[in-house]
UniProtKB/TrEMBL annotation:
InterPro entries on file: Donson
Species assigned in the record: Taeniopygia guttata
Keyword check for Nucleus: yes
Family: Belongs to the DONSON family.
Coiled-coil segments: none
GO biological process, one term: nuclear DNA replication
GO CC term, one of those recorded: nucleus
Protein name according to UniProt: Downstream neighbor of SON
Keywords, sorted A to Z: Developmental protein, Nucleus
Subcellular location: Nucleus
Amino acid sequence: MAGKACPWAQDEAVQQVLMSDWSVSFTSLYNLLRARLCPYFYVCAPQFSVLFRAAGLAGSAVPTAAIAPTTRGLRDAMRGDGIEFSLPLLEESRSRKRKKGEILEEQAFSHSSNDDDDDGSFSWLEEMGVQDKVKKPDTISIQMRKEKHEVQVDHRAESLVLVRGSNTFTLLNFLISCRSLVAAAGPQAGLPPTLLSPVAFRGGTMQTLKARTVSGRARAQGGFEDVFSLEVLGPVLPHALHALTMVLGPAQRGSFRALLSPHEPSAAFNARPEDVQQDLPACGLHPKTLDQLQQCPTLGKSSIRLLEMKDYTYTWKA
């Protein structure tokens, strides 16, 4: 049944054509981003998601790409291709622990070698004459112990990888040739990742979100009141959420509530890259929306779940 429903899953020729067309669309989006004609776009792969942001967004003076969640294998592959990156949430966590006076047992990504110390720690066995009866850890075991902390962050928010500047172009080529970018099984088997963008791009199609309205009555002071709700299903991009709030504000006389259901792995994209203000062209978005997108994120690895307006004043909970 899977083969009949997904004919491309078993046809390598079809998969190559799909991947070739997808690469053209991906490159088109990246060129728009570098030209600052596209503010941001997402690459949604089975194992991870990538958020590309133009220079001027989230307080960054250069283009950035955030990847979450990641694994040690993916990070090693990126290093092997010469991609320089940082792990801002992990570094922030380590810095916070240092300030609290906590001592980390192991340092992730340490380039110093302590092999001599490890060998020297067994010198007392030689003094007792039992060094041959005790099995010393080999080099691989020592290396695995050193990298324990790095492996522990896999698939967690702290595994967020941030790529900046010209390294985003190297990342583009890396992703195009990355085998794990395409699912090997399941309903998406053989299909390239989904590209989500607020602007048109080569090979892109416009998709509408599903909306449903519900009305009812709820208890209120002095009796009941009419309650209306709007349910929006699908990938609601940041600019679309801001556009909805600008519509609902005056339409609901400054009072409404919005319950949000975020894609959990993407919450890490709220990590703060840096604090630099830079203008960004309109990119087809509302000026007020651009103002919001240009601000530095403050949520860390959290995301807004409740947004409420009362008397035209916003409050939210993460």
